[in-house]
């Protein structure tokens, strides 16, 4: 399946660079470029984009509002949004994730990491850049405590609760399956059910919830989120 990708960034040079990276991939098709959030929303709908690479700081409408309109709660036909960010935009990233973004990635990520991220988001897995996850999610938990949301976990079965913990530690379905000694297809089913029970649109949203309720905390060992 070919993923239809829209690039939204107010800098023409950035858009051109991203297009050059993606055009060599047979399973990725760049269906348009937008210079601001309003144009991104309109073009994503008109060109039927599967994934939008979204900058945050743009004129007319920023990437946060554009993400909310494309992927936020109540959107009838959501489009997957992958936010491209830098360290100094932490607050915007938190807002974008809450608005429904499927993930975020640093702008200086290697080309292959970007390509893999688009494929991951397009496949419904979501993605948080490994090199920034601990910092961003830890800060998110510290500045936005929401212990009252812990009741949302009560609907999960013990196994789903365990899978959520593994997701929050940044582990893939295959890694979780190996750790729990079950088939990967079984983990996929658990993930689908727990996301539905929690009202989360992606694994990224589930990670945020896990941090907000204290299921995982900052300061874990290397390779773990908590």
Automatic annotation (TrEMBL):
Residues that bear 4-aspartylphosphate: 55
Listed InterPro entries: CheY-like_superfamily, NreC/VraR/RcsB-like_REC, Sig_transdc_resp-reg_C-effctor, Sig_transdc_resp-reg_receiver, Tscrpt_reg_LuxR_C, WalR-like
Chain ranges of the HTH luxR-type domain: 149-214
Domain Response regulatory as annotated: residue spans: 4-122
Superkingdom of the source species: Bacteria
Annotated GO biological process: phosphorelay signal transduction system; regulation of DNA-templated transcription
One MF term in the entry's GO annotations: DNA binding
Organism: Conexibacter woesei (strain DSM 14684 / CCUG 47730 / CIP 108061 / JCM 11494 / NBRC 100937 / ID131577)
Coiled-coil regions listed: none
Keyword Transcription regulation annotated: yes
Name under which the protein is recorded: Two component transcriptional regulator, LuxR family
Pfam families: GerE (PF00196), Response_reg (PF00072)
Gene3D superfamilies: 3.40.50.2300
Keywords from the UniProt entry: DNA-binding, Phosphoprotein, Transcription, Transcription regulation
Record PANTHER family: TRANSCRIPTIONAL REGULATORY PROTEIN NARL-RELATED, TWO-COMPONENT RESPONSE REGULATOR
């Amino acid at each position: 399946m070919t993923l239809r990708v829209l690039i939204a960034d107010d800098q023409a040079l950035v858009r051109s660079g991203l297009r050059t990276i993606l055009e060599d991939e047979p399973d990725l098709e760049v269906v348009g470029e937008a210079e601001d959030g309003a144009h991104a929303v309109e073009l994503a709908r008109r060109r039927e984009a599967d994934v939008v690479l979204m900058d945050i700081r743009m004129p007319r409408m920023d990437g946060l509002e554009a993400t909310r309109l494309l992927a936020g709660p109540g959107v009838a036909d959501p489009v997957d949004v992958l936010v491209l960010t830098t360290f100094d935009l932490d607050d915007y990233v938190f807002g974008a994730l809450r608005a429904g973004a499927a993930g975020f990635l640093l702008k200086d990520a290697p080309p292959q990491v970007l390509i893999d991220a688009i494929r991951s988001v397009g496949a419904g897995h979501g993605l948080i850049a490994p090199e920034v996850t601990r910092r961003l999610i830890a800060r998110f938990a510290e500045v936005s405590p929401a212990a009252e949301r812990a009741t949302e976990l009560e609907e999960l079965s013990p196994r789903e609760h365990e899978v959520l913990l593994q997701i929050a530690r940044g582990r893939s379905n295959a890694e979780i399956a190996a750790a729990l000694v079950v088939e990967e297809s079984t983990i996929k089913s658990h993930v689908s059910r727990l996301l539905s029970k929690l009202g989360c649109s992606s694994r990224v949203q589930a990670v945020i919830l896990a941090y907000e309720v204290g299921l995982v905390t900052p300061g874990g060992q290397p390779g773990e989120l908590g």
